[in-house]
Design goal:
By secondary structure, this protein is an alpha/beta fold. It has helices at residues 2-9, 12-34, 47-60, 66-72, 92-104, 115-132, 146-161, 166-169, 185-193, 217-226, 249-259, 296-299, 315-319, 353-363, 366-388, 414-431, 458-473; strands at residues 139-143, 175-180, 201-204, 230-237, 262-266, 291-295, 307-311, 392-394, 402-407, 437-441, 444-450.
Length: 474
């Protein structure tokens, strides 16, 4: 009985049939969304109703309909009307590399379980380090997302800068990091996980342009020191998630060097700009960072999650975690690069490097230049369209493909304007034709788009603006 069931599970003929059927369904989905054939970017459903649907489907649904229902009941990142979260519409080829990784299931912590993927990862890391401007002493690895990468980078910073062996002996004094008040929440979360507490997160106010106010660094550093807080790192946003605005990495790097602290650049979204000839200036100074995070699943057309964590000095990647697992890892110095479990939280890590390698092999570095440059250009275009519209305003001039805007009338109070824009965004969500998100800056509510789809055009932008205007007039 058990063996018959297991033989059914591993039936290769069923795999072939189901696989071809699924590829056909996904191809149809892609053609429909990329060509803007269907109306909606999302078919919104309330959480409890969605939960009930799947509860009933589990007991009574036809298994032949399962994949199609999942495809239907999602947010369509390949639709030109998708302008929501910073999630890439993956290049179709990476769905196939994901299939390879899922089926082969080679965890990459130790070389014999991930021969090709570890070697490929090494080449990917060398390529990205070279684009950052690092020399041949640099290195790094791929890991599961920017949140985990930022935490790992700060652990590396603590290990390299602090005078005590906290990894083995525990922390005996108050440590701290400096970071923009507009930095991604995962930096705050990482600091709290590390036991720094609220007092150890020194938040630097932003300028009216929403970049870190570097004029305040010296005074904030002194204030922390006077309180007995040992600052060991400063984080530059490249860019901030909410605004798409880049901190001045060059000034931050100089400050870090002067005070002998670690400089980390959170380039989860915008770090891919190192590949863009037109926009790499937004990252000026990133080559001075001790560590850099870049998400492949944001601006580099890969499926989630895959993130590069790069180190100016590779030795810092090797020494972050000092923990012996005799049955897995030896201490040999030359083994480090192909036993990635020594450097990451993950022991079992999927073969994410093949996403990066396949795109590089098939299309070259130019594909990342093309994608970043085009999407940033389209962000600038949308901003110009908003500026041309009466009663619309930008939060600030965009530096990337992230644009914050709102509808406002001079006669409306700030509170009423916030309420109106929140209502517009909710109406858009429930209608489903367009998917955009929201943010709050200095107590002002803004709608926010992130142009992630290279097939989103001016026509789609104007349609979104006209839809918002229609809500107002009604």
């Amino acid at each position: 009985m058990h063996k018959e069931l297991l033989e059914q599970v591993y039936n290769t003929s069923d795999f072939n049939t189901n696989g071809h059927s699924l590829i056909d369904q996904l191809t149809s989905h892609l053609e429909n969304k990329l060509n803007d054939t269907s109306r909606n970017a999302i078919n919104w459903n309330e959480p409890e109703k969605e939960l009930q649907f799947w509860k009933e489907f589990l007991s009574d649904g036809d298994s032949k309909d399962m994949f199609q229902e999942i495809i239907k009941r999602t947010t369509y990142v390949h639709h030109p009307h998708y302008m929501g979260h910073q999630v890439s519409p993956p290049a179709p080829i990476t769905a196939l590399t994901g299939l390879i990784s899922a089926l082969l299931n080679n965890g990459t912590a130790v070389y014999e379980m991930g021969m090709s993927s570890n070697a490929i990862e090494r080449l990917v890391i060398e390529t990205v380090c070279n684009k950052i401007g690092y020399n041949n002493t640099s290195g790094g690895f791929l890991t599961s997302g920017g949140t985990l990468a930022n935490l790992t980078a700060l652990l590396s910073a603590r290990k390299a800068i602090t005078k005590r062996d906290i990894w083995n002996d525990g922390n005996q004094n108050q440590l701290g990091i400096m970071v923009s008040e507009e930095a991604h929440y995962c930096v705050d979360r990482a600091a709290r996980i590390m036991g720094l507490g609220e007092q150890g997160i020194i938040k630097i106010p932003v300028t009216k342009e929403f970049s870190m106010n570097t004029d305040l660094l010296a005074s904030k550093f002194k204030q922390a020191k006077d309180k007995g807080i040992e600052i060991f790192a400063i984080v530059g946003s490249a860019p901030s998630t909410a605004t798409g605005i880049f901190d001045n990495l060059e000034v931050i790097g100089a400050f870090a060097k002067k005070h002998n602290i670690w400089f980390h650049a959170d380039g989860a979204h915008g770090g891919a700009g190192v590949f863009s000839n037109k926009y790499k200036h937004t990252l000026k100074g990133i080559d001075q960072a001790d560590s850099v995070v870049i998400d492949g699943h944001k601006m580099m057309m890969m499926p989630a999650l895959t993130t590069a964590l790069l180190y100016k000095e590779e030795i810092n990647a090797k020494t972050t975690f000092t923990q012996k697992a005799d049955y897995l890892l030896s201490d040999s110095e030359h083994e480090d690069w192909y036993n990635s479990g020594k450097r990451t939280f993950e022991c079992t890590k999927n073969m994410m490097s093949i996403h990066w390698f396949t795109l590089l092999k098939l299309y070259g570095e130019e594909v990342f230049d093309a994608n970043v440059t085009h999407l940033y250009d389209m962000g600038a275009l949308f901003a110009r369209l908003i500026e041309e519209e009466p009663n619309f305003e930008l939060a600030l001039k965009p530096m990337s493909n992230i644009v914050c805007f709102r509808y406002c009338l001079p006669s409306m109070s700030s509170e009423d304007t916030n309420i109106l824009n929140a209502k517009i965004r909710q109406l858009l969500l429930e209608d489903g034709e367009f998917y955009i998100v929201q943010t709050k800056l200095k107590d002002r509510f803004y709608m926010r788009i992130t142009v992630m789809n290279p097939f989103t055009t001016e026509v789609h932008f104007r349609a979104l603006i006209n839809k918002i205007k229609a809500y107002i007039s009604n």
